[in-house]
Design a protein that fits this description.
This protein is mostly helical and 316 residues long. It contains 15 helices and two strands. The longest helix has 34 residues. It starts with 15 loop residues before the first helix and ends in a 7-residue tail after the last helix.
């Protein structure tokens, strides 16, 4: 009595598509190249290629007599960044970005902590909707709305007048440098709009980091006799540091490069984004505009390097 056994291996299917499928199954590296090839090519050629082409312009210079670009490699344009007026633009932008980042972290922490520790079910859904709802509206609409809110005849001035706090607002506006005729033409107003626009980018990473903190660690800290302030300083903040770093990358870098908010709300003093726009647009000085774009890249590079040295990315 003979036993007929069927082959466990399926026969090779005819057709080009079937053969290509067999190759992808036998060679995972080919499958990986097929999947990642188009996006990597797009990122390398279109995005990074255009960025490097722009940065290459920073090594050229402008002929002061003809106003034409001299396509000769030089560091003259970077030397122009050391002029007092350009250093003032860089310092102003970095200080504003740092202030917005610190304020966003302070404001985001209690909100994120409540969402991570106490919000559940419907309340957590409402939290995500409340945080992300401002992101669903137009960026320009939000900025122009804030310009109306902060104007001298705006609702904020009206509210301060009604509650009798107008002298406090006038005292803030009287502060040299950061004050102005009204909030809509002052650095205080620019700061408030930056903080409103970028705050969700700090809340969400911080909330995700706080959710990964085991409640048992907080309970153990309390059982050991630690005060709430000690638990916050020695347990909660170190574990939440990756979320703060992730959020600060967004808030700091976005503030460094933004030019729309300072253009609409604030004084006539330029930020880096406005300087890039002005030099490549009305002034036609593309090399200096490209040199200005290098500044945020270098600053963020040092920031990420320092954060990595401090171990802020270890728990990400």
């Amino acid at each position: 009595m003979s036993v007929v056994t069927a082959s466990a291996i399926l026969p090779v299917q005819p057709g080009l598509l079937a053969r290509f499928s067999d190759v992808l199954w036998r060679r995972p590296s080919v499958l990986l190249a097929v999947l990642l090839g188009p996006p990597v090519l797009w990122l390398g050629v279109i995005y990074l290629g255009s960025l490097f082409a722009l940065l290459a312009q920073s090594f050229f210079s402008i002929d002061e007599f003809t106003g034409l670009i001299q396509y000769q490699w030089t560091l003259k344009t970077y030397g122009e960044l050391l002029h007092p007026v350009n250093l003032d633009i860089i310092a102003r932008t970095v200080l504003m970005a740092a202030a917005v980042t610190i304020a966003a972290a302070i404001m985001a922490f209690p909100v994120a902590y409540f969402a991570a520790r106490y919000a559940t079910g419907r309340w957590k859904a409402l939290f995500y909707i409340g945080v992300m709802l401002p992101l669903w509206s137009s960026y320009l609409v939000k900025v122009y709305a804030w310009k109306l809110i902060l104007a001298k005849e705006g609702i904020l001035t009206w509210a301060f007048t009604k509650v009798g706090l107008m002298p406090v607002l006038e005292a803030f506006l009287a502060i040299p440098v950061i004050g102005g005729n009204s909030l809509s033409v002052s650095y205080i107003g620019t700061f408030l709009v930056f903080l409103y626009v970028w705050l969700p980018f700090m809340i969400l990473p911080l909330q995700a980091a706080l959710e990964r903190v085991p409640p048992s660690l907080l309970e153990a800290s309390a059982d050991q006799g630690a005060k709430p302030s000690q638990t916050l300083r020695h347990v909660l903040l170190p574990l939440a540091l990756p979320g703060v770093v992730a959020g600060s990358i967004f808030t700091f870098s976005l503030t460094l490069g933004d030019y729309i908010i300072p253009q609409i709300v604030g004084s006539s003093r330029l930020f880096i984004g406005q300087a890039v726009y002005a030099h490549q647009g009305t002034a036609g000085n593309i090399p200096l505009a490209a040199a200005f774009t290098v500044v945020p890249i270098v600053i963020m590079g040092f920031y990420l390097w320092g954060a990595k040295r401090l171990g802020a990315f270890d728990a990400l």
